[in-house]
Design brief:
- The complex is a heterotrimer of chains A (204), B (251) and C (253).
- Chain A has 204 residues and is of the alpha/beta class.
- Chain A has a single domain, classed as P-loop containing nucleotide triphosphate hydrolases (Rossmann fold, 3-Layer(aba) Sandwich), CATH 3.40.50.300.
- Chain A is 35% helix and 25% strand.
- In chain A, the strands form 2 sheets. A 5-stranded parallel β-sheet of chain A has the order 6-7-8-3-9, with helices on both faces. A 4-stranded antiparallel β-sheet of chain A has the order 2-1-4-5, covered by helices on one side.
- In chain A, strand 1 and strand 2 form a beta hairpin.
- By secondary structure, chain B is of the alpha/beta class.
- Chain B has 2 domains: 122 residues, 3-Layer(aba) Sandwich (D-Maltodextrin-Binding Protein, domain 2), CATH 3.40.190; 103 residues, D-Maltodextrin-Binding Protein, domain 2.
- Chain B is built from 10 helices and 11 strands.
- In chain B, the strands form 2 sheets. A 6-stranded mixed β-sheet of chain B has the order 2-1-3-10-4-11, sandwiched between helices. A 5-stranded mixed β-sheet of chain B has the order 7-6-8-5-9, sandwiched between helices.
- In chain B, helix 2 packs antiparallel against helix 10.
- The longest helix of chain B has 23 residues.
- Chain C is mainly α and 253 residues long.
- Chain C is 83% helix and 0% strand.
- In chain C, helix 1 packs across helix 13, helix 3 packs across helix 10 and helix 12 runs antiparallel to helix 13.
- Chain C is globular and about 65 Å long.
- The relative contact order of chain C is 0.15.
- Classes of the chains: A alpha/beta (204), B alpha/beta (251), C mainly alpha (253).
- Chains in contact: A-C, B-C.
- Chains B and C meet through helix 3 and strand 7 of B and helix 12 of C.
């Protein structure tokens, strides 16, 4: 469960305030708002990439508002993917597990499992710079899901994709939504996306 | 933007040419050994007042300067710290005419008041004493130092005690002034310029009295002016007064 | 068109300079130079000291470049300007300043444990002071140009700052590090002014290759000076070329 209580973020002249919402396990919430309304800022604050002025972010019952980014255990897929360019697809997906000092064979199994789930098992040995947009999003998803997070944050995961790929990824996200029992926060500015994916819609 | 850049460049060029003009209004280039730098600076000022001719001085070790003028084949006069470099220059067919100018004698120089109690040449090998000389290849005083010590039979011991070699006599003197060395071999006339430097009397050093020698270069395009300056330097009463004031003994 | 002429003039000028050296010498001069024990010592000292300087410079430049590129703090602009001082200063001033530094109480304390002035340590310090400034500048630019998104994602995946630096940023900066290293090495190899003042020109002790060129010229041995110059040009060019090739190869994979 992810909950934001009276979240207030200041960043230079820009402020986002009075953010209150709750996403239960198994729920898929799409957060909608115009460009510049602070959607990305909220997601970054939740993930711990931005300082929160006041208010709280709760994961289940734990207050993570001022917890170090790395300890929050939130899966994060940024808008641009931001894949690790010096690593292969497999290394990208397994990175969080390597940091958690998992044994090598366990990492390999988990990476393989995710790759099959995401339909990218044939790409594992490839570098990431030559991947297509859709493939990149799949890798980014795999990387964010690898360590079994309770919460997944997606920042406009479909905005840079062409229509066919977009449909593929939407189908994939629908599949994930049904098979994984986690809380998902998905940022979007497209009503169509929101309709197809969300269990509820928030407007900013 | 591009246009203004080009204009600015053009103006800068113009200014530079202006600088060059100023330099070229009757000036002579003199390659000057470091040992006679203090006195030459004064004489050049006097000469400029007298005649309006600017003498540009380029300083360095005698050897370094000789190499420069061999390659560049430019300039009007060469002033070497000792006759041997002038002999080399003559051998390379660079010199029109040369004359000895001032007597200079090597001395064992120490930091003022001689805190390390250096009495003779063997003392430079004492533990904790830093002995500096001019590089035998670069400077006249360096090669004289080596020749003296070879002649006295001390070189083989002393050469292992050399803490540092430097390019010119001025560098050795500056090191003594900064106390980065304790003892060095420099010219007496250079030692006279520094109140921070005392000298230790070493008898056999006096046998190696040298004469700083001035010569007009064949490459000079203003031979008449160069010869005039040389004669001013050697014979003019005002020039002699400067030499005397700064403690140089003329030839 | 005009730009092409300007660009090619400069390249031609560089090549012409090197060619002029070539025409002044013969292979026999170069072999004779290589046979001299003084020059062998100078080559050895130059290569070793430049390499030490390179390693030190990179070790120092990476953290400085990282803090300058990734953090904002008070007086950052001033620190930025201070970091450029060694680049701006004339070589003689660097040498003199070092000489004076080691005459202060602090400097004398160090000297009382390890003699620095006029020793080979002075050679490395003189090289390092200038070369490191170039390495710092290079690393600063390198890190600034790398977007920090990947590091941020790494943080959400469970990294701390140190891990995200070593696993994510540093591998991306690889070619920048190579450039910084080669630049530092090349600077160190060519360093002369500060060494002459701070380390002296003692043959077989503190004589590096530029000192050799200077000393050989002083004895009128211009042929040897040119031969040594060519050795320096060749080794410098080789190192830079290898780094360029290696650096780009890694990048395109």
């Amino acid at each position: 469960m992810l909950q934001c209580i009276d979240l207030h973020i200041e960043q230079g002249d820009f402020t986002v305030s009075n953010i209150n919402f709750k996403i239960n396990k198994g729920e898929y919430v799409v957060l909608m708002g115009k460009t510049g309304s602070g959607k990305t800022t909220i997601i970054e604050a939740i993930c711990g990439l931005r300082k929160v002025k006041s208010g709280q972010v709760l994961l289940d019952t734990i207050d993570v508002t001022h917890m170090a980014t790395g300890q929050r255990e939130i899966g994060y897929v940024p808008q641009d993917g931001a894949l690790f360019v010096t690593m292969t697809v497999a290394e990208n997906i397994g990175f969080a597990l390597k940091i958690r000092k998992w044994p090598k064979d366990k990492i390999k199994d988990r990476v393989q499992e995710l790759a099959v789930l995401l339909g990218i098992d044939h790409l594992l040995k490839r570098g990431v710079t030559s991947l297509s947009g859709g493939e990149k999003q799949r890798v980014a998803l795999g990387r964010a899901l690898s360590f079994y997070p309770e919460v997944l944050c997606l920042d406009e995961p479909l905005s840079a994709l062409d229509d066919t790929t977009k449909a593929d990824i939407i189908a994939l996200l629908q599949r994930l939504k049904n098979s994984l029992d986690i809380a998902v926060l998905h940022i979007s500015h497209s009503k169509e996306e929101a309709k197809k994916l969300s269990s509820s819609i928030l407007h900013l | 933007m591009g246009k203004s850049c080009i204009i600015a460049l053009f103006i800068l060029f113009f200014l530079m040419v202006g600088c060059k003009k100023k330099q070229e209004q009757k000036s002579l280039l003199l390659y000057c050994a470091a040992v006679v730098k203090p006195v030459l600076e004064e004489v050049v000022k006097v000469y400029y007042k007298e005649t309006g001719i600017q003498i540009d001085l380029q300083y360095g070790g005698s050897g370094t300067l000789l190499a420069n003028l061999r390659i560049a084949k430019q300039g009007d006069l060469y002033l070497s710290a000792d006759a041997s470099y002038m002999q080399q220059a003559i051998k390379y067919n660079l010199i029109k005419e040369s004359k000895p100018l001032v007597a200079i004698t090597p001395v064992l120089a120490v930091v003022v008041n001689n805190p390390k109690q250096i009495k003779n040449i063997k003392d430079v090998c004492t533990e904790g004493v830093r002995f500096g000389i001019a590089n035998p290849d670069a400077a006249s005083i360096g090669s004289v130092t080596k020749n003296m010590l070879v002649a006295s039979g001390d070189w083989d011991t002393v050469k292992n005690c050399i803490y540092v070699q430097m390019p010119t006599v001025s560098d050795v003197s500056n090191a003594l002034k900064l106390k980065t060395i304790d003892v060095g071999v420099i010219w007496d006339v250079t030692a006279n310029q520094y109140k921070e430097i005392d000298t230790v009397k070493i008898d056999f050093f006096n046998e190696f009295k040298e004469y700083a020698t001035v010569g007009v270069l064949k490459s000079s395009k203003q031979e008449k002016e160069a010869l005039e300056f040389m004669s001013f330097l050697l014979h003019n009463a005002k020039s002699k007064r400067v030499f005397k004031k700064l403690g140089y003994n003329m030839y | 068109m005009v730009m092409g002429i300007v660009a090619s003039t400069y390249v031609i000028l560089i090549l012409a300079m090197v060619l002029a050296d070539f025409f002044y010498t013969t292979p026999s001069h170069i072999f004779k130079a290589l046979a001299s024990s003084e020059i062998q010592y100078a080559i050895k000292l130059s290569l070793i000291s430049s390499t030490i300087t390179m390693v030190l410079s990179v070790i120092v430049a990476i953290p400085i470049g990282y803090f300058m590129a990734r953090y904002n703090f008070k007086f950052k602009k001033i620190i930025d300007a201070i970091l450029d001082i060694p680049i701006v200063l004339p070589p003689l001033v660097v040498g003199l300043s070092l000489l004076l530094l080691f005459q202060t109480t602090f400097g004398q304390f160090i000297e009382s444990h390890l003699r620095i002035t006029y020793t080979i340590y002075a050679v490395v310090i003189a090289q390092f002071m200038v070369a490191c400034a170039f390495a710092v500048r290079t690393m600063y630019v390198t890190f600034s140009q790398i977007n920090n998104r990947q590091e941020q994602v790494a943080l959400t995946l469970g990294c701390n700052q140190r891990q995200s630096f070593f696993y994510i940023l540093l591998p991306q900066a690889k070619s920048g590090i190579l450039t910084a290293a080669s630049l530092a090495w090349a600077r160190a190899l060519g360093e002369f002014g500060p060494i002459l003042i701070f380390a002296g020109a003692t043959r077989m002790r503190t004589e590096v290759l530029p000192t050799t060129v200077f000393l050989e010229m002083s004895v009128g041995n211009i042929e040897a000076a040119v031969a040594v110059s060519l050795i320096m040009i060749a080794s410098g060019f080789l190192v830079l070329l290898v780094v360029r090739l290696y650096g780009t190869k890694k990048n395109t994979i």
